[in-house]
Amino acid sequence: MAGVEDQVSSLPNSLPITPRTAPIMFHHDDQFGSLPITPRTASVAQTPSILSLPITPRTARTPSIVSLPPSQFHSPSLSRSPLLLTGDHATNKPVKTPRSRGLTPRFITPLGSPLRKALKMTRLDPQDAWLPITESRNGNAFYAAFHTLCSGIGIQALVLPVAFTILGWAWGIIGLTVAFVWQLYTLYLMVQLHENHETGLRYSRYLQLACATFGENLGKLSSAFPLGYLSAGTCCALIIIGGSTAKLLYETLCGATCSNPKPLTVVEWYLVFTCVAVVLAQLPNLNSIAGISLIGALTAVGYCTALWTVSVAEGRLPNVSYEPVRKGSQVNKIFDLLNAFGIIAFAFRGHNLILEIQATMPSSEKHPSRVPMWRGVQFAYLLIAMCLFPLAIGGYWAYGHLIPANGSVLTALFAFHSQDVSRSVLALISIFVIINAVSSFQLYGMPMFDDMESAYTTRCKKACPWWLRSIFRAIFGFICFFIAVALPFLGSFTGLIGGIALPITFAHPCFMWLKVKKPKKYSLSWWVNWGLGLLGMGLSVILIAAGLYVVIDTGVKISFFNPQ
């Protein structure tokens, strides 16, 4: 130390030296604490060039960190904003974010340690405050449960007993159980992948995560078409189911006693359903339809429970058989079997909405959105299991092989028990189906609304005005109406569609987990995800081939612009 003191004493008197007797505290946001910086006196002798620099008092301008709100995740963006400011710019001025019409919180802080905050840039997405999925992030576990339950139970559950007619009791229950557990596991992976702790980003849409994981070209190639069908195609199917059920309700309540000499045709009922759905579609964002999702979820639970309880209460039909219905050659039997598994896969198709639902929730490092999201998902899937398994097992027990091949439990109930069951009960079930179809239309249509508005905001760099938003949604609704009228036989392709959409639910989440989380090679997680991912992709190819074969072999009654 004597050598150091001699060097210091030889310095000019014009260089003021401020002794540091205590550690200097470098203050950051409260949630990260503070970093003590102690003087490095031992290194002075080794670096004499430092002594030639002027040493200024503590009052001089030094870099400081802007005081920011609690750390929150962001969605991917091309715009970046630095957090480390110096001089006059180191103020506490609020960062400007795009103005939103709703109660949209401002997201300006990344997730990470103080060092990451100092060295990395904040990635902001100004469009998030303008788009319907992320316009409001005030959701909670209850909203997540409502949305998940409404999307998890629906028209796809009504066709499960049809798969049992081909698989039989044993393989039907095994296939349904395996599919339920498998998709619940991949759903858990999706919830965990929504937030990236390394980059502080939130992937608010399935396609965003796919492109970030697999690359822009491969992500769009593998996911764009299935996601488009799962949104727009489901809306078309909902118009067909809702319009047909509305006609059935009218006939149930009126029947031969109706005084109207010219009742509405099927196409006109489709139009009535579409108009109602378009009116409800004017609600601005995903959080704003939480009440509609709640009503849709309650009605879904209601009609699923009513269908299997009424069917079981009426007893088994005479001459019912539980022998698997497999006709033709051995090849035909194999493809029929695979097509039945495709029908089961078709029943689990809500994964394309999970990231979008989670995007409506606030998130920070201390309170990540995955915690309330998973709580809501667990509650929702408990109710989904209580609906799907009794509906599939009870419906197959009551009707056996007599369930129409291209029908559902609903059509079987009206076909065999329309004279035995009270008209009020049949009408109540029909009303529940219609309400659930209208509610599900809003949920499945939201990703398409988001895409249309995203194209506008990307081009015009401003929020979509309300009148243009209304036009977009009306156009989408009536395009779906046109497709439903032009292609009313879409229900015959259930197995094929299940094979096409299968990777979205059963395979892609496993590969995303491997790419993002990078589990240790040959560990249990590594084996499980590789095995399930490859099995899912293989099953998808086989089920698509089986679905095409069954459609070609059995034939489909093509009736363009002639819905029955």
Automatic annotation (TrEMBL):
Pfam families: Aa_trans. It comes from the Eukaryota. Residues 138-552 form the Amino acid transporter transmembrane domain. The chain crosses the membrane at residues 169-191, 227-246, 266-283, 290-310, 379-399, 425-445, 466-487, 493-514, 526-552. It is found in: Membrane. Keywords: Amino-acid transport, Membrane, Transmembrane, Transmembrane helix, Transport. Signal peptide: none annotated. This is Amino acid transporter transmembrane domain-containing protein. The lineage of its organism: Eukaryota, Viridiplantae, Streptophyta, Embryophyta, Tracheophyta.
